[in-house]
Amino acid sequence: MSKLTENYNGIYSLMLTPFNDDLTVDYKGYEEYAVWQANQGVEHLFAVCGSSEMANLNIEERIKLAELTVKNKGNTTVVATANNEPSWFAQVEEVKRMSQTGVDGLVFTTKGFGNDEDRLVTYVGELKQYTDLPVFMYEFPGAQPHLISGNAYGRLVKECGVYGIKDTTCSAELIKDKIDQKGDSCIIQANMPYLFEAFKMGARGVMATPTACGGAFFQRFYEAFMSGDMALAEQRYNEIILLDNAIDNGFNCSAKYLVNLQGVKSMKAINRGGQKLSPARLHSLEAFHNWCVANSLMD
């Protein structure tokens, strides 16, 4: 039985994909990065996600990245998106293959069915038949309409046995709508402005872009919040907001550069979208990193 069935709350650090100069995947560098991520103190890793540039990776690359994450996961658990392929039959094979990589759980995107509750519930229920692993949902903006209602999510929990959702609504009202329908599942936050508020309302997980380069920030917040020390939790939340603002301009290259500054020298600040950071932007990130080191927030 998957370890995720015992504990599926907490921080899910997103995995970046390092590239060589020719934009092939740097698998050796990825292993170095996966070890670094596992050592950040979080309980879960999210391979093959939006921050991994999954939309720009072919299925062989996605499967291999999931396998390498499992290989280097340490004491964490690993989830990975498993329905990226365009056709139904290809998605079925993708689910089967991803289930065999050793990951502890699968993530299904809402696949553009956000406005069709019945179709979404039927789709997830049918696709879930091809895996024995816990399934989580992801409101992935790459396939719109991607946002779903609290009622739709409640049905996914009750009718399909979904364990949690990466909520990307970025609205306190819509976050609460899902929390009110969550049952025993976990509402997992992607939005930082409402993170603290969402936890106060009942959210108990995070899958957010800053975890790609600062999982320890979130683990510190999570531990403070769960201990009941709200003053310390608010301080940790404020540190997360600083990190979020630091990488917002130029993500995900900015996150990659912060990973590089923290010791994963194989991580280059390049992506398949052709994005590059200006010298001024690099200098700004270096200043932020130096401040974090001086305040014992980063290595």
Report the strand count. Answer: 8
Number of domains: 1
What's the SSE pattern?
EHEHEHEHEHEHEHEHHHH
Major sheet: size, sense and barrel closure? 8 strands, parallel, barrel
Please tell me what the overall shape is: globular
Report the sheet-strand fraction. Answer: 5-15%
How does the SSE layout of this entry go?
Layout: E1 10-14, H1 27-38, E2 44-47, H2 59-71, E3 77-81, H3 88-99, E4 105-109, H4 117-127, E5 135-138, H5 150-160, E6 164-167, H6 172-179, E7 186-189, H7 195-201, E8 205-206, H8 211-227, H9 230-248, H10 253-261, H11 279-294
Parallel strand pairs: 1-2, 1-8, 2-3, 3-4, 4-5, 5-6, 6-7, 7-8
Helix pairs in contact: 1-2, 4-5, 5-6, 8-9, 10-11
Describe it for me?
With 299 residues, the chain is α/β, with parallel strands linked by helices. It has one domain: TIM Barrel (Alpha-Beta Barrel). 45% of the residues lie in helices and 11% in strands. The chain is built from 11 helices and 8 strands. The chain has helices at 27-38, 59-71, 88-99, 117-127, 150-160, 172-179, 195-201, 211-227, 230-248, 253-261, 279-294; strands spanning 10-14, 44-47, 77-81, 105-109, 135-138, 164-167, 186-189, 205-206. An 8-stranded parallel barrel has the order 1-2-3-4-5-6-7-8, surrounded by 5 helices.
Keywords:
single chain, 299 residues, alpha/beta, TIM Barrel, 11 helices, 11% strand, globular
Short description:
This protein has helices at 27-38, 59-71, 88-99, 117-127, 150-160, 172-179, 195-201, 211-227, 230-248, 253-261, 279-294, and strands spanning 10-14, 44-47, 77-81, 105-109, 135-138, 164-167, 186-189, 205-206.
